[in-house]
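Morning run. Coffee first, then this:
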Amino acid sequence: MEKLESFKNQLAFDFYNDKEKIKKKLDPNNENSEKKVQILFRNTIPEIPLTTSGTFSVYKYPAKFIPQVIAYVLKEYAKPGMKIFDPFAGSGTVGIVSRVYGYDYILWDLNPMIEVIHNTAVIKRIDTNPASIIRNIKNSDKEFVPNWSNIKYWFPEEFLSLLAKAWGVANSLTETDKYLLLIPLLKVSRFFSYSDEKVHKLYKSKHSKKKVEELLKVDWKSKFYLMLEKEMYILLRKIKEYNKLNPKQVNYQIRSGIDILETKLDDQVNILITSPPYLQAQEYIRSTKLELFWLGYDEAYIKELSKKEIPYRSVNEVNIYSDKYFKFREQIEEPHLKQLYDRYFNAILGSFSSLEENVKDYLFIFVGPAKIRTTSIPIDEILIEHLREFGWKHEITFIDKIVSRVMFESKINPASGVEDSRIKTEHLVVLKRDI
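And here it is:
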């Protein structure tokens, strides 16, 4: 207990030191200010000492916000009664954190996974014993099999009958009990597939083939039930941990399957905080395709979602008010990379140009300085230049070091086979409505 208190005190000390540095940067009399501050967000919120605390990490998800980024924004910039909006909400961390500090929120995302993860994360309490759900599965004759033409490519036939029983029960449970089972069952279903759980996208590897071969040699049914029960107990512990933060009853709205380029924000909000897709996003929907099929979405719908991904879709050109955008565009020689660059910025800048109309106070945009080939693209600076045209003043940019990656760390980039040059920092751009 003493060690924990000492740790929290040190975090608080670091946080207040950071705040003093930030004040100096924001001082209008400081002519040398570049309005950029190095920060380690995970050290700024003593009440959330770990990025995996509570239900902020119930499921692995690509390019995820750490909760401390949102908590920092809400504690330092938000005022009581404000409404928060995230148009690229991912796993819903903005909403899950907003509850802790008592703010209403709106979440949009292309991927329907947001509803399962969010609804699981914000459960108040569950009285059901995981052992009783396991007994229910063992004794059930209900079955659910996904409408997926490739299901036997990803699952050995031996596993399918048991998975079908478990998912049959999941679809028949009451709302609260269902959310106790869904996330654990998604984790175990992925483990009992040919998908390599060390790689986020759906990928059949030598490692995953060997994993299945080894499972088939043992009492895999008992292992399945043990894993599932263990995951449910882990989830119960995380729910209890989250509720110790005293989340509030707030109003919220979640919309999934959202085409960001075709959807208008009808509500007025005070703060937009988001992390848009990466410049070279890697098949966002494909990364959760296995999960979406088991959740009951069919092949046609999942294909339609994939067609809406940025930056792999056709995009209407918009007026771009950034000299840096054109400067870096000239450095790209390959036509297909230039097309990707154009699509990305027309989509992202066009979206923000539309959404900002109904944002009253602040934009917080979290991006990384991505590369095209060896050229680092200053996405944050392009955003700042463009949004100035719409009446937004740049207050500060926080530069946060990426301490750990969700799936793996490697000296060699597994996608390219060359030395890993993935981004090492992420930048939180803070823009204020210039009234």
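The chain has two domains: 2-122+247-433, 130-243. Good start to the day.
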